[in-house]
Specification:
This protein is α/β, with parallel strands linked by helices. It has one domain (about 1-170, about 195-240, about 280-295): NAD(P)-binding Rossmann-like Domain (Rossmann fold), CATH 3.40.50.720. Helices cover about 45% and strands about 15% of the residues. The protein is built from 13 helices and 12 strands. It has helices at about 10-20, 40-50, 60-65, 75-80, 85-105, 135-150, 170-180, 200-215, 215-220, 240-255, 270, 285-295, 300-310; strands at about 1-5, 25-30, 65-70, 110-115, 155-160, 165, 185-190, 195, 195-200, 230, 240, 265. It has a 6-stranded parallel beta sheet, with helices on both faces. It has a two-stranded parallel ribbon with strand order 6-9. Helix 1 packs across helix 8 and helix 7 crosses helix 10. The longest helix is centred in the N-terminal third of the chain and has 22 residues, at about 85-105. The protein is globular and about 60 Å long. It starts with a strand and ends in a 7-residue tail after the last helix. The model has no long low-confidence stretch (mean pLDDT about 95).
Length: about 325
Amino acid sequence: MIWLIGCKGMLGSEIARQLEENKLPWIGTDREVDITNPQALEAFSKSVETDSYFPSNLSYKERKIKWIINCSAYTNVDKAEEDTELASKLNEDGPRNIAREARKIGARLIHISTDYVFNGEGNKPYTEEMEKDPLGVYGKTKAAGEDAICKEMNQYYIIRTAWLYGFDGRNFVYTMTKAMNSRESVKVVNDQFGTPTCAVDLANVILKLILKSDNAKSFFGKDSAPSYGIYHFTDSGQTSWFEFATEIYKFGRKTGRITNVCQVNPCTTQEFGAKVARPSYSVLSKEKIIKAMKIKIPSWQQSLEKFMKNERFNPL
C-alpha cells in the first residue's frame, strides 16, 4: 500500500492519476490528516491496516503501508516571510512527523523538496552534495525539513525539483496563458535561471522509483535498488523565466491555447519588484538520478509543448 500525502495538490493529483493508471494500491490524504500532529498520522496509519478501513477481501499484506509519498508543503514564497510559524510547521515539523511514522511502521519515504535550499549564487548546476544556503523563510524551512528526515530515518528518498507546473492548480504556465489571452503585453524577469519541470514527468519518475525499488532484481539484474538519499529531478536544459514565457506564447499560438496577440517583454528582478529574494541561478544537476535509475529526461521544451497540447490543459 502507498500512502500519498497531499493528494489534492498539483503534484499529488498527478501522482494519484498515475497510481490509478498503473493499478497500484494507494490511499490519499490531504488536509483531513494533520501532518503537524503526530497522533493524527499514527491514527490514520493504524486505520489503514484494519479491516474497517478497506474492503475485507484485502489481506493484511495488501493493506500494510510500504511507501509514503509526501507532496504536502507550504509553498507561498512571499507569504512565508510573514507566516513563518505555519511555514515551519508544514515544511519542517510535518516532514519530521511523517518520517517518524514511516520509520515506526517500516515504510519507505519519498519526500519532495526544492531548488530554494540553495542561494542561487553559483553558475553551474547544483549537485546533491553541495552545501545548502537558503535565502528566505520558504527555503530555510524546506532545508530544515530535509535535515529532520535525515535525522529520523535511513530509508528515504528526498527529491528536489524546481519550476513545477501541472494540470491541477495554479502555476506559471496557466498564469501566463491567461495573461497572454487578455493583455497586450506581459513583463517577465530575465535574470533568474532554472529548469521548468512538468508534474507528469516528476510523477512518472516517482512511480518508477517505487517500482524499481520493489522489483530491483528484474530492473537492475541484482538485488539492489537506487541508494537512499537525496536526488535532483527537473526536465533537462535550462532557461530564464522570460525565455520560458516566450516558449509558452509560441506553443500557445501554435496549439490555439493563446488566440490573442501579446508582446512578451523582459525585465530585471529589481524592475519587476519581487518582495522576496529568489535564487538567480538554481539549475539542478540530474546526473545522479539518471545514473541510478537509468532514465532519459525530456527537454523542458518537449514537455511544455506536450503539456499544452494535452486535452487536460485547462487554465483556471
